[in-house]
Specification:
Order of helices and strands: HHHHHHHHHHHHHEEHHEHEH
CATH class of the largest domain: Mainly Alpha
Radius of gyration: 23 Å
Structural class: mainly alpha
CATH architecture of the largest domain: Alpha/alpha barrel
Strand content: under 5%
Number of domains: 2
Helix content: 55-70%
């Protein structure tokens, strides 16, 4: 019996050792997986891309005489870096963004003005004012926020209102940042009025938004702009604001609608409700920003929304290349009453629409997983 027991014990020890080895390998895989999706690490990588020579826009900016520098995708990317820097308490990252605004503070350069895509430039200076207290940033940005409403109509909507869903962010977010910087409630009222008017014209029973009334398609990034703008306003608005419940309802309807169309791998499509449409990263990043923020702030139940936002982040993380460029980003897209127009839009790597959305998503997931804010 002794030999049998000896070999039985030896066999058992082998099984245990093998099991421990498997568990160790599994732990290593989990650790690697966590590091590959760490929002702080990947967010900094995307930020360094925007600020550095490997940016998808760095080479072409000079061809446009610096106009890329004042474009709305760059404004949204810089804002993304600033909110990430704030979440990470990364003063160096913030100061590198601030350096890019020095020519505007000195008067050597001027931002564009007179269109929503130009005026949204102000979101970066507003955020820098909030973080640094430098009044020069406030002056630069406030002029752009007020310009949007200098000739507001009887309905109280912005001068440049055209009911393109993109403008929910271009107008709404700028007014929200103005409120955060000044505490003047007129900016908050403007944002609510604008977003709820667009909700009335564009949001459909499934919770999603048409690109325009004349282009009745659920374009991914257009819906991303809507989701991000509502999220920004809900973050800033007092709980007792009389229009908050209406906007919160619109937000929740949209988040529920997005869950129904999330792909198995975690991303969303260029045309959200079209299975043959390609998976698109800028819209997905914006949706992750909205979902993760809603879970963190209690606007949405933990499940299934937390799982959806983290599943989305895991898939989006895999779309960041070695140089910090986001892949599969739909290029700029005008409104057209033609489904093929949206289905055939080209995709780019490193397009700033995607970099901005990635930075927003990274910040929201970092805050969701880390200390509450």
């Amino acid at each position: 019996m002794r030999p049998i027991l000896h070999y039985a014990n030896k066999w058992a020890r082998g099984i245990i050792a093998g099991s421990l080895l498997v568990l160790g390998l599994a732990a290593d895989c989990l650790h690697a997986s966590a590091s590959e999706t760490d929002p702080a690490v990947l967010g900094r990588k995307a930020a360094n891309n925007v600020l550095g020579p490997k940016s998808g826009y760095a080479k072409i900016s000079s061809l446009f005489l610096g106009q890329i520098d004042i474009s709305y995708p760059m404004a949204c990317s810089r804002y993304g870096i600033l909110i990430l820097a704030d979440a990470l308490h990364d003063k160096d990252l913030r100061d590198r963004v601030a350096k890019s605004y020095e020519p505007f503070l000195s008067g050597k350069r001027k931002p564009g003005k007179g269109h929503v895509d130009f005026n949204v430039f102000g979101i970066g200076p507003f955020e820098l004012y909030r973080q640094t207290g430098n009044p020069a940033y406030l002056s630069l940005a406030k002029e752009l926020a007020d310009d949007e409403f200098k000739k507001a109509g009887k309905d109280g909507l912005a001068d440049y209102t055209r009911f393109w869903v993109d403008d929910m962010y271009m107008v709404g977010s700028l007014q929200v940042q103005a409120y955060k910087a000044t505490d003047d409630p007129k900016y908050l009222d403007r944002a609510f009025r604008q977003l709820l008017a667009y909700r009335g014209r564009l949001q459909q029973p499934n919770g999603l938004f048409y690109h325009t009334p004349e282009a009745p398609f659920f374009w991914g990034r257009g819906n991303g702009w809507a989701a991000a703008s509502m999220t920004e306003l809900l973050l800033a608005a007092p709980e007792d604001h009389p229009q908050r419940p209406a906007l919160l309802q619109a937000y929740r309807e949209m988040m529920k609608g997005l869950l129904a169309y999330q792909d198995r791998n975690g991303l969303w499509r260029q045309l959200i409700d079209e299975p043959e449409s390609y998976l698109e990263t800028s819209s997905s990043g914006m949706f992750i920003f909205a979902l993760a923020t809603g879970v963190r702030k209690g606007w949405l139940p933990q499940e299934p929304y937390r799982t959806a936002s983290l599943k989305g982040w895991q898939a989006l993380s895999a779309e960041l290349d070695a140089d910090g460029n986001v892949r599969d980003v739909c290029i700029g897209t005008g409104a057209l009453n033609n489904k093929t127009h949206y289905l055939m839009r080209p995709r780019k790597t490193g397009d700033l629409h995607g970099q901005a959305a990635f930075l927003w998503a990274a910040t929201a997931v970092y805050l969701l997983n880390g200390p509450g804010r």
